[in-house]
Design brief:
The chain is an alpha/beta fold and 138 residues long. The chain has 5 helices and 8 strands; from the N terminus they run H-E-E-H-E-E-E-H-E-H-E-H-E. A 6-stranded mixed beta sheet has the order 3-4-5-6-7-8. A two-stranded antiparallel ribbon has the order 1-2. Helix 3 runs parallel beside helix 4. It is globular.
Length: 138
């Protein structure tokens, strides 16, 4: 049975499940616009670069693979230089997919993206937390 037959997600020639399963400081996801790496204090992911419709799928997939059933994922978004509505929607979908008992904590959210999340009312979702702490600057 090939990878395509199993329905596994494939990007840039590797299975993200294989990369995320490895511990260490290496990237979780890489394309020409976006690099996703693990963070350890707090446990989460750092997104650097640009998220748009060509790679927004990586947001949800990285989170569901890295945090399949437990924990409140922290996302460091301070190095995000661009995010279109598909990327913002991917963050919202990821938060909604966590369920009622878990939370997606967004750190270092660029002002323009935070404004969109607030204006649309997505900031009121119980599973989405716009964190203003200093974690992203560590």
């Amino acid at each position: 049975m090939g990878i395509a037959d199993r329905g596994d997600w494939v990007g840039e020639g590797f299975r993200i499940e294989d990369v995320v399963a490895e511990l260490g400081d290496g990237p979780v996801y890489v394309d020409k616009q976006l690099v996703v790496t693990r963070t350890f204090a707090p446990v989460g992911l750092r997104f650097a670069g640009e998220i748009d419709m060509t790679n927004s799928h990586a947001v949800v997939r990285s989170l569901t693979t890295a945090f399949p059933t437990t924990g409140d994922p922290h996302l460091d978004l301070a190095a995000l230089i661009f995010c279109d509505i598909s990327g913002i929607r991917a963050l919202v979908d990821a938060a909604e997919g966590l369920g009622a008992e878990r939370h997606l904590l967004l750190h270092g959210l660029p002002h323009q993206i935070e404004k969109v999340i607030r204006v649309t009312g997505w900031s009121d979702l119980p599973s989405l937390v716009l964190c203003s702490c200093e974690v992203a600057q560590r």
